[in-house]
Predict the structure.
Amino acid sequence: MDIIIIGMLLGGAYALMAMGLQLQYGVARIMNLANGEMLVAGSFAAFWIFTGYQYSPVLSIVIVAPLAFGANWLIYKIFMRPLVKRAKSEGQLEVDSILSTFGQSFILVGLMLALFGGEYFSYSYLEEPFEIMGEAYELNRIIAFLFSAVLCGSLYFWLNRTRLGLTFRAVSVNAEAAGLVGINVPRAAALAFGIGGAVTASGGALLSMFLTFDASVGVIFTMKALVIVIMGGVRDIRGTILIAFVLGLAETAVASLIDPGLTLAAAYFLFIIILLFRPEGLFGRRSV
Amino acid sequence: MRRRYYGGRRRWEFVGMTRRELYGLLTGIIIFALASLLPLVNTGYGLSLGVTIAMYTVLSTSWALFSGPTHYISLATAAFFGLGMYVVGGGLEMYPFPILILIAAGVGAVLAGFIGIATLRLSGVYFVIFTLGLAELIRQLVTWGQTTLGTSSGLYVLTNIDEKMIYWQLLVLAAFVYLIGWWINRSKLGFALRIIGNDEKVAAHSGINTALVKVLLFMVSGSIAAVTGALLAPRWTYIEPTIAFSPMLSFLVVIMALIGGAHRLWGPVLGVVPFALVWDLITAKFPNQTALMLGIAFLLIVYAIPHGFIGLGEKYWAKYKVWRDRA
């Protein structure tokens, strides 16, 4: 029972982080391998705001999200757009964007190392017990879960009910056709890239409430987000959310039943199974 | 020496090689002969740098065998390398060293075959992501296995193989890699690979079993990386999962191969030599800025020299030719 609830609580934050990547890959078609570093940057920002100014990490999202949006929008304009323009095929864009975002992720790690040093960081915020069905859980995990649920829900609603959401979905289904019906595809892609970064950084701010982090941990989160997005099916938000919970549960189960050092192995084990039996993802459509 | 006629143009050849190939072979032999003299000149810092350069030459050239023509970026080098190291570390008491190298080659090929079957049927992104985490996955499994079996987390590698021997062994391996690469380029396999790299759909429609070709090549590349790890195990007397499966190795190999130029067999070595020297300097002088430097190197590859030094050279050579013909 413990495992299920803690796993669900972790899955909520994972869902938020993976949805950020989903927007960047699904709409902007950039496999952003610097995603985890953006998350860690969000964590550092929340840490800094909490320890320096005593504002709650939840409130820090109000600052973190717009900043991350701006930063990612600029990254898309400066680094990714030229690659999209020069790419002759989708494959070439894939290779170029992978190498470029790798470079960005290393630069971000380097900058964070220079700014904060290589130590592990954590802070205590709302470490009070909260009872669910007779068992006590840390309040900060619950708060983080609730906020990521609210953010995921509003994102889902926004994608399905608003005009800009419709635009995004159109671009993600077929960028060329979207351009033909009068959608400004480059603008939509830049916006989606920015929003995706903002969502991921907010996930980082929430995760920092109960996880220990350091400057170079980002790549682990990148891998988890990638595994979630691919397992859930590219361009499918439902799959992303579902798999995020599955991964949260699987990791918690492996960590508490076998060995805490095997969490990534658990994620990869699931990944291999999906790749072998359902390579298009849980909800993805088989391509011809 | 015989003379043959090809389409009216007279060419000469020597055991099936054109003049150009023969000159290439002779240059290669001279370079290898010179390189093998290094341990006689210097056995200290120079030799240790030589081992590093030879190691990266083997790793990035074999990386480019697969990733150059197909454009699939493999980040699994560290996984194969570490596995090879562990084969030697774990089996040294039971088998002689040469047998262990063969075992490492086999283990590397099997692992590569398995990864290839799981991911190479799909698009390149899946492959990159999978290989990105592979070294970490194996490291976690090895660490877990060792702690649950009750032994310590590392292994002792006690042999009488010194750095000189490692260096010469690596040179032999490098020569072997170049021969394989040369043979693949001439063979049907290499031809199929180039078609796949240009357009996978066309390749599939012309009857090439694209998945099989990719898996085979990846197995060659993975097996060589495992052998490199096996050869280098005696350099460390004590190996640990964090040393053997260091993810940095995979990134460095990719950067070096791409900076040199992955579309030519002798491209990667042109990136290895300067980058290894610069990297050595950076890790000694600014150990905290290595991540930043890696990032800058990646961006440089994408935005400034997308086809590596070789690509730059070829571009200016073509310009020079136009200028010469006009003059």
